[in-house]
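Lab meeting minutes (informal)
Scribe: AK
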Amino acid sequence: MEYQHRDTKVAIIGLGYVGLPLSIQFARSGIRVLGLDIDTRKPALLNSGQSYIKHIEADEIRSVVESGLFKASSDFALIRWVDAVIICVPTPLNRHREPDLSYIVQTGQSIAPYLAGSDGLSAEKPCSDADCQSWLAAGNPSKPVECKLVVLESTTYPGTTDTDLRKILEDGSGLQAGLGFNLAYSPEREDPGRRDYSVKTIPKVVGGFTPACLERAASLYGSVVDKVHRVGSCRAAEATKLTENIFRSVNIALVNELKVVYEAMGIDVWEVIEAASTKPFGYMPFYPGPGLGGHCIPIDPFYLTWKAREYEKHTRFIELAGEINTSMPNYVVSKVVESLNRIGKSVNGSRILILGLAYKPDVDDDRESVSYVLMKKLEQLGASVAYNDPHIPEIEPTRNHSDLASRRSHPVEDAYDLVLLATAHRDYVDFDFSGFEAVLLDTRNCVKHPPSRYYKA
């Protein structure tokens, strides 16, 4: 099969849950990929064919490494040898729940000196990774590339690409966007662990700084995915990603609120959702939970809320949804108190096991996981809290919960006063709890074999 971009070299910055699957798909499509990450452990693991993300098999990595189409490094000077740079770095919120663009800023500053692609930079900032440089130079053309394409994939507010990132790249390179380099935005749509869709089959939305920028980016992505959807600007593409996740946030908030209301009326919200789902039109099921987790839904709405203030607009509906969703851990804690009271115990001094640290089933992704919030709230009330997660044997340091690092997963056993199911891992769905004396509080309505003391939250 002939590839329109078979001689293209792409650098993908950030080899996490977004950047690594994207790298694999580009390499599978016959494009030479340079994976870049400031965490030096990741390139070393990848180049030896190992995976550090559970749902990405080591065989997938070994395949693209052995094909000669993928190498990983931490040397940003190698960017001078590539045709396109795709940025897949985190965009969290700071402690004031405001956008934190520091990763985008730092990445832009790191790549800007190499956008010109001239040999004149070699003496000033030589490549330290000679092996990767030789590998990149082995392609055609075997010299630094002029007029690179830069694409941002990180979720952010409208205007980041054509204003914030553009200024950083122009100031650092001395080039002008649209002339000296092409600039575009294409939102990531990765859903870790999902099997029915992949990087290849999920349509790619692309917006460019100029029409030429759009066409170049769309052409590149079109060589590796089944469908590209063009929009008229980078801002429209940025807004597309926010809209997708705000839609989910608002609807999850709605069913979370209904759960609390129906519970007070003695109605099972799960039964109601199942019944409503039988309508073949005009209804889409969303499900309640103990709170929001993951890298998108808890964060993305606040990016638009923050940016809207610049235009003197107030996103009341979005903010209300955020308030409801962030209040759910308190509701779950109240149900823990209520469930323990039923067996004559208080939270203070009780032993509690939380089932699941990952934010969604059957993955090892614990970003923004509500389980950390529940753990801290229960410990503040005097409980002794342990956790089990078959996908996360030990808690790694995180931005918001570094104090919990190094805790290890405990076995699921009937040695606790209460077991709190927070994540619907398949292991828990099928687990036989029927003989447990402990209270089981299920926030996901997923247990097939419950004990006699079984409650929903």
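Next up, CB showed the second protein from the same session:
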Amino acid sequence: MMEARLSEINNQKSNITNLYGCDKSQKSEPMRVAVLRGGVGREREVSLESGRCVAEALRQGGVDVVTSDIRPDDMAILARKDIDVFFLALHGEFGEDGQLQQVFEDRGLVYTGCGPEASRLAFDKMASKRLFAAGGVAVPSVVEFAPGDDSAGLDGQLKKFGERFVVKPIRQGSSVGVHVVKSRSEAVAAACQVRDEFGDCMVESFITGREVTVGVLDRQPLPIIEIRSKTGFYDYQAKYIDDRTEYLFDTIEDETVRTRIAEAAMTCFDALGCRDFSRIDFIVSEDGTPYALEANTIPGFTTHSLLPKAAAKLGIPMSELCVRIVRTTAAKRQGKKV
């Protein structure tokens, strides 16, 4: 079993290495990269930290880096003619929802990550869940609670969901606004609160199981990470502040289940039309079924973040990961040898 697992990891590393052209003996022309961070969404602080970590990693890799705290009313950085690649480290609104990506497309600029449509679809949790389900991936039962909907009607719809629920905004990330509740009355109250605060809301059935995530790097699934929060819920505190949260590899012993998770991640990636990299989150039920929760088209790049952890598991440190992303982006979008 151990030899098989080591072989699997080595094969993954070889695939990623070949795709990203990491022959360190090759010399490339100097590249200037603009790291965009901050923005205007509720995940601004996380985005600032992601951008700081990316910029530091790129500089360690010998890349000429500039940074910009970009906003809808200040996009002057996009007019610079000396930027080869824009590295998007923006999370949430105006970073991950397709708006900024459309600006790049309209201006013909080279940027990392998914395009406008994939970003928009992934950011909309209801739209993405429909696509996941259409692709044959299991998703939790869900009901949308839109402005104008009646709370009594919501209570009636939830009767078939059990007695535990997850209430969340449809278009937010980093577990912003998410509530885990243990009764229909609590779910209805939380849904009213979320809808009033964010303008939209969805209520999912709570799936008992193990929380895992799968990074996808240029169409290659990375090692599965199991997340174990000390509070029992992987919320904003557990993600970015609590150092007790555990991120574990090699905890899914059943090879069939591992394969199902990896295949489900790729199905979700393709259903959205993703490119370059993304991260797909799942709950794996007791019978080994991976239930897709959401896709992150600009996953975090902080010290707590999971895509860099998964890459590091394959022997790809943060600096090498970020340099490879910008080099590959330039090669794909410009047809440029890098």
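CB comment: The chain has eleven helices and 13 strands.
No objections, moving on.
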